Here is the input.
Amino acid sequence: MIVAKRKPFEEIKDMLKGYKKVLNVGCGTCVSVCLAGGEKEVAVLNAEIDMARKLDNDPIELGAYTVERQCDREYLAELDDMVKDYDALISMACGVGIQFLAERFPETPVLPAVDTSGLAVNQAVGWYEERCRSCQSCVLGWTGGICPVTMCAKGLYNGPCGGTNQGKCEISQDQPCAWYLIHERLSAQDRLDNIKRIKAPSTWCDQVPRTLIQPGYKKPEEEE
Amino acid sequence: MRLDYPANVKIIRVPCTGKVDVIHLLRAIQKGADGAYCVGCLEGACHYNEGNLRCRERVNHVRELLDEIGIEGDRVRMYNLSSGEGPTFAQYAKEMTEHIKELGPNPLNQNKDATNKKKAAA
Here is the structure.
């Protein structure tokens, strides 16, 4: 899932300077699960902003609304009649949701309240670990299900490098060497020969904004 | 035991301190309480294993949030005792009350008082 972290309060407060009526829009999907921008976090942030502005003798009127997903038009449509009543919007969704919200309401400033950090697994309540960098060149089939792009400090598709040291990475003793882990996993699965496969240079599809149309979902008018 | 404890303490009962959320404590301060504290079971003695430990984490988080806003985080505290310790409960109530008296009223109320006075003067 996509995980995000709440921005420091000072930064949010700074962005809100001058606005008197603001709607805080949460997102009910990934950022809700990772406890960064769901209904509950919207309530907490609003309480903080309300108190801080009262202390500054500059009260602010705040609205709260959490949509199912900010990355889908049908859910953003729920806000259409509400937005005109506000000076600005806060979005607690991931970077995708924030931009889609801004795109839907181009005349209203949309301010982010979270920093999106990536794609992560849930290790325990509130504890997330990154596992994927969405490089669009997945090699997990040859690396024992361990992503070297994410786990290796150099993001090496073909490793290890000379910095591997007793299972640790040269950057830190706390950082396991991804390619050591891959070696161990492949070895245990008796398919160590996979480590010798050379991955051709990546196309680095993530250097430009990507559009994905799933097979079978192309609109008839777009067909050649 | 008929123990005395300060009358300004208002008790909100929860099934376990693990039920207490960040927003509950923030709301208390936002609505004008001068302080808020959670009294949970002794650490290691939670019937649900970690309810009181989770509460402690949340209390610490709220303290940080309040400090960020500019309100003393120490207005929110966590205390632990066993259910058989009535006198300790009364003692914590006194301790918290004295502590809050030292800190003074909730700054949100001070601003409100100033605004009301201004209005009255005008």
